[in-house]
Amino acid sequence: MKTNKLQIASAIVLLITLIVTIILFAALPEQIAIHWTKGVADKFTTRFVGAFSLIFLSSGIFILQVLISRINRAKRAFYDIFFLLVIAALNITQVFSLLWNSGYKFNISNIGGMVGEIIIGLIFISVGIFLRHTKEKIHAGVHLGFWLASSKALDDPNIRKKTNNIAGIAFEILGTILILMSFFSKLQNVLFNVALWSTIAIVAFTYIYSSYEYQKEAKNNAKL
């Protein structure tokens, strides 16, 4: 069986985080912070739960990554990239949290927000790359299956390729914008809204575009 380097990368991220957690565990207080608002800790939990909960969650996601990639081999690379990014985001958050609770005080809200939003941007970019290279009829993200015209349109390989290519480029641009926004603390607060409404706009546009291309092609065929 071919070695899956992306799954190995996920496992390495988990192992490094586990080692860091074990090293820092003794320096953690009995109650550790797990949430911050403007750099001020406002939610706490026990040392063990705070130190290991994200590791347990990441381990579960890693198992899911392995299972899904075996079930759907056609989309293995996309799923592996997606899960690797999610695991990386959780484990980077874990390390920053442990460092802060161990006495290394810094503005964790800004740094954590920046790291998380960079990961979100990378996920959007990976979705865009997947869409530009897939030959499948997408029923989530771009095509939701509600409009009969769009559903028929995406049965046409040429229209499907055009639609997925436009959507892919749009998601790649959106991901790049989100990454750039993450470096500005004042823009971090609006990043979620930008991501949400931009995604809705991309979905709506590509939906309408595929339907338009289908109707145009139908008229051209009728003239012939």
Mean pLDDT: 80
Helix-residue proportion:
over 70%
**What is the overall silhouette?**
elongated
Task: Give the neighbour order of strands across the main sheet.
Answer: 1-2
Q: Compute the number of strand runs.
A: 2
What low-confidence regions span 5 or more consecutive residues with pLDDT below 50?
139-147
Structure classification: mainly alpha
Number of domains: 2
Q: Give the oligomer, counting copies of the same chain as homo and different chains as hetero.
A: single chain
Give me the strand/helix succession.
HEEHHHHHH
Number of helices: 7
* Radius of gyration, whole Å: 21 Å
Share of β-strand residues: 5-15%
Distance between the first and last residues' Cα:
51 Å
- Sheet with the most strands? 2 strands, antiparallel
Name some characteristics of this structure.
224 residues; mainly alpha; 2 domains; two-stranded antiparallel ribbon; 2 strands; elongated
What does this structure look like?
The chain contains seven helices and two strands. Strand 1 and strand 2 form a beta hairpin. Helix 3 runs antiparallel to helix 4. The protein has a two-stranded antiparallel sheet. Helix content is 75%, strand content 6%. It has two domains: 106 residues, no CATH class; 118 residues, no CATH class. The termini are far apart. The chain is mainly α and 224 residues long. It is elongated, with a radius of gyration of 21 Å.
